[in-house]
Amino acid sequence: MTLLELEDVTASYGPVQVLDGVSLSVPENGAVGILGANGAGKTTTLRAISATVRTGGRIVFDGEDIRGRRPDKVAALGIAHVPEGRGTFGDLTVRENLRVGAYLRKDRKGIESDIEYCLDLFPNLQDRIRSNASALSGGEQQMLAVGRAIMSKPRLLLLDEASLGLAPTTAKAVYDAIRRLRIESGIAMVVVEQNANLAFTVVDSATVLETGRSVLTGTSAELRGMDEIRRAYLGG
Amino acid sequence: MSRHFRSRKALVIAVASTLALTFAGCSREGGGDGATGAAASPGITDTTVRLGISTPLSGSTAGPGTCTVAGVKAYFGAKNAAGGVAFGDGKTRTVEIEALDDGYDPQRAKANYDSLKDDVFAMTAGLGTPTNRAWREAAIADEVPQVLVMTGDPLFSDTQESPWQLGFVPIYQNEGEAFGKLLVASGAPHKVAILSQNDDYGAGYVEGFKSAVEGAANIEIVDELTYEATDTSVDAQITQLSASGADVIFNAMSLVPLVVSALQKAQQLNWLPSWFLPSNTSSPGAVVEPGGGAAFPGIYSVSFAKAPASPAFAGDEDVQTYLAALKEHGDYPDAPAFPHCQWSWMVGATLEQAFTTMTEPTRDDFMRALRSIENFEAPLMLPGTAVTTTESGQPAVPTVVVQKYNGKGYDTVESLG
Amino acid sequence: MAGARMTTAALSDRQRSWLRRAGPLLLVVVLVVVPLVFPESVNETIARIGVFAVAVLGLNVVMGYAGQVSLGQIFFLGLGAYVTAYGVSNDWNIVVVFVLACLIPAFVGLLVALAAARLGGLAIAMVTVALPIVGVPLAKRLSEFTGGSQGLSARFGDAPEWSGLYDDQWRLYLVLAIGGAVFLLTRNLVRGKYGRVLGIVKKNENVASSVGISPYRYKVLAFTLASLIGGVSGFLYMLVIQYTSPETMSFGHSIQLLAAMVIGGAASIVGSVLGGAYYVLVPQLTNLVDPSLTALLQGAVLLVVLFVLPGGLASLARPLGRGRRSRARHDPAPLITPSATTKSGSAADTPETERQGHP
Question: Residue C33 has what pLDDT?
């Protein structure tokens, strides 16, 4: 059962065409990676899904074409975007930041238990629960951003460069938690990652973008086996 | 403030009264400082009288506003230097002026009034319709004179409605009427086109003009258009009016750039009527010269004050006294840029006229004295105009004379041509 | 470090609970007593401060809390004042007048916001600039309702016989009661969920929509609410000044209101009161110094305050009795965050655009 299907999606910022035919398919409970060089259109693909950029083509979520909807409506369908750069609110506490993610939910008890789950998933946040987010380290802020996305009880999580600017051990800790989340919750994911090795710890398959176009799609194993992929994205 | 001596029945709760004691220092004691005799009004003693002015000294109307203070300050500055003003009650007093800036903001004008009303004998000379209207009712309630103020609003000259007020400058209707009368008196047939601002300013002028030409056989109004105060061009209106065959245009516009472009547009269309402009948009330097006014058979406007810049009055004794005093006592070192300086000087002279016939140092008696001036030719007034305060519905200066542009300034004319 | 923090937090919690109980009571007592003890001129000045504090509060809702640049707030004050003046001079019931003075500006604000909030940050600013610029000639034009450029006078709110109060005292009570209610309601609103959501929209529209918040709807709500509060301030303006004219809503006053909000403190309830005090008192004080230099002196005051207290005067009042948490939330807020800046500032956007330079 396919949860999300992108067909020949295009997007541009003004005159600059950034996406020029991206196709992607995410099965229910699946996780798909997007690989590619800087400027290949990885982040824009996520923004196309979450409707924060104008797009062409078809974007089908759970059987419905969602292209052209307002971003908040898309979010309400159960698509949670963890933007590159995190976008946590420095003057809110960790708990308040998590609650932001639960904006659309009314189930008080469920919210509380999901906060507990986030804290269990990211034990670092447990100690900082009353601190302002501005006091967190980069890794903790990334965890908080993922936690906030989880709080909306999404069916699909869009993760953008979760390892950016983090020390290798921290990045690994973040991805360990994401893998655990995937296993425990079954949330489907689209993962954009510079560090393909990290991405492959989570995703089952991936698509490779070049100048805004899908050029190659395969399972993790297939892609890991290809020389050019190894050279370009796996550091050897 | 005497009404605040009235015993109060206010329900003062226990806590309140305790705290009230703490504030006792600032509790009400009533106003009226410095008044000597029991009968004297606030702001006047045996040796001084104090006048208040609220006028725009900042913002876009600061230029004319500053003049409204400078003229009256210069006038009484010179009088004070010569010993003071001899009042009708036999005492000689110096005149102090306390002027505050209201930035043409009604709310601030009201605040200025509130802060001045207990210290000054009368309020005077302030510029602006909304800023004077803002505290008119309060002045009536407090019985504080608000006199010889610079507004063309007829309300201030309505004795019934405004017992403590008197406007100084002619109202819009006076101006329009003066030009209408001149046209009628010319005897020759004239076709008139009217272009006016679509608000009470334009309407006032047109009303005055029409009342003067009504029933006159030699005047025909051939076309009448309006424009909005927000419009950036009146080219379309001028084009339409040029086709009307009018030989006179009655042009009641308050915006200088629009008047300039209207004059230019008419020349482009080779339509050269005699042109009437309101007093506030007829400045030779700012309007007529840039507009190429010399091309027209005549540019007409109205005035009641001698223009110090005009060569005709360069040697005039009034003008020289005035310019010297403005520099020395009016804090106004430059040549007066707005007629309001002259008007304000006349306000000083008119106030003095009232002071000399006051027999008691009260606001009541001042109003009586002020309202009984007839045909007083204040310094700087043009021949044919005078201060008359006895007629209800009319400002202190109800008459204006029509003037014609002569290439540099304006000369008074008796007829069109 | 964390332990020390906890202690201070606990301490200020205790202080806070005391202040929470005693503070409002004290405030109410002061507000009840003030009109009785001061002379008329002081009462009138306080009433004027109340009028403009409410106007600044409205501006704060849309600009301080929601981060949308609005340069047209004075228009809604003027509209409320005109509605009030018209209603009073036609002898309508004063309660009806009050309701209309709230609803009509709110409705106009809603219409403007529905159109403007679709546009980007600076475009909203431009639309709001147009309001006073169109409003002034419109008010002159519609002289049937507005009295033209000569304006409208309307006197109401004289002290009833039974109260035994002077008119100025009674009016000040009305201002304090109505203004106080508006402040209380607004305070509860911005401290609650609504305020938190506004803050999120202000700081990062993309994140806001990623959790299902419609930035558009909240911008419209904030703008409408600001217009409504502007209408209330217009009602109070008529109560206190008793006169309105096209000049009331001139664009210059809108800028002065904005300056008052910044000086008082953006996104601050106390700051709104201080802003109102600034708006009313500084022109009066500069008049005392030198009436011919008021504009210059006001500019100097503005600059000095901004350099010394970038968060506005409210940052002085902040340490008094506020808990650590709420203090943090009301930290010297960035004055203006046009959503254009917010967007490009959000990390989700910037790198992508940067990358376009070298694809």
Answer: 85
Which of the 8 DSSP states describes residue B284?
I
- A22/chain C closest Cα distance in angstroms: 17
Q: Which chains touch A (3 or more CB pairs under 8 A)?
A: C
User: Does residue B83 have a pLDDT over 60?
Assistant: yes
Tell whether the model's pLDDT for residue C128 goes beyond 50. yes
Q: In what order do the strands lie in the sheet with A2-13?
A: A16-27, A2-13, A55-61, A64-65
Q: How many alpha carbons fall within 13 Å on the CB side of residue B323? A: 15
Long-range contacts for C330-333 (Cβ within 8 Å, ≥24 apart)? C330/C267, C330/C268, C331/A91, C332/C265, C333/C64, C333/C265, C333/C266, C333/C267, C333/C268
What are the start-end ranges of the H helices in A18-122?
42-49, 71-76, 94-101, 108-121
pLDDT in the model for residue C221: 93
Question: Would you say residue C346 has pLDDT above 60?
Answer: no
pLDDT band, very low/low/confident/very high, at B224 (cuts 50, 70, 90): very high
- In this structure, what CATH number is given to the domain that contains residue B166? 3.40.50.2300
**Whether residue B250 is found in the same domain as residue B194:** yes
Assess whether B223 and B256 both reside in one domain: yes
Three-state secondary structure readout of chain C = CHHHHHHHHHHHHHHHHHHHHHHHHHHHHHHHHHHHHCCHHHHHHHHHHHHHHHHHHHHHHHHHHCCCCCCCHHHHHHHHHHHHHHHHHCCCCHHHHHHHHHHHHHHHHHHHHHHHCCCCHHHHHHHHHHHHHHHHHHHHHCHHHHCHHHCEECCCCCCCHHHCCCHHHHHHHHHHHHHHHHHHHHHHHHHCHHHHHHHHHHHCHHHHHHCCCCHHHHHHHHHHHHHHHHHHHHHHHHHHHCEECHHHHCHHHHHHHHHHHHHHCCCCHHHHHHHHHHHHHHHHHHHHHCHHHHHHHHHHHHHHHHHHCCCCCHHHHCCCCCCHHHHHHCCCCCCCCCHHHHHHHCCCCHHHHHHHCCC
pLDDT bucket at C19, cuts 50 / 70 / 90: low
Q: What percent of chain B has pLDDT over 90?
A: 54
Residues B109 and B154 in one domain: yes
Q: Indicate the range of A1-10, B205-214, C120-129, C295-304 predicted with least confidence.
A: C120-129
Q: Point out the domain boundary residue: B272, B303, B334.
A: B303
Cβ neighbours of residue C131 under 8 Å, at least 6 residues apart? Answer: C71, C72, C75, C76, C112
Residue C37 to residue B26, Cβ atoms within 8 A: yes
What local confidence, expressed as pLDDT, does residue C16 receive?
Answer: 64
Nearest to C245 among B106, B137, B228 (CB): B106
For C32, the closest of B16, B60, B62 (CB atoms) is: B16
Predicted local distance difference test score (pLDDT) of residue B250: 95
From chain B residues 98-157, the ones with a CB under 8 A of any chain C CB are: 99-101, 103-108, 110-112, 114-115, 118, 128-131, 133-138, 153, 155
Structural domain tally of chain B? 2
Domain that holds residue B241: 173-303
Let me know whether B76 and B166 are in one domain. Answer: yes
**ipTM value for the complex:** 0.83
The average pLDDT across A190-199 equals 88
A-chain residues near C196 (CB < 8 A): 92, 96, 100
The 3-state DSSP class for residue B127 equals strand
Q: Which domains does chain A have, with CATH numbers?
A: 2-90+156-233 (3.40.50.300)
Higher pLDDT, B310 or A220: A220
Record: contact C169-B230, CB cut-off 8 A: no
Longest dimension (CA), chain C: 80
Q: What percent of chain B has pLDDT over 70?
A: 91
- What's the predicted TM-score (pTM) here? 0.81
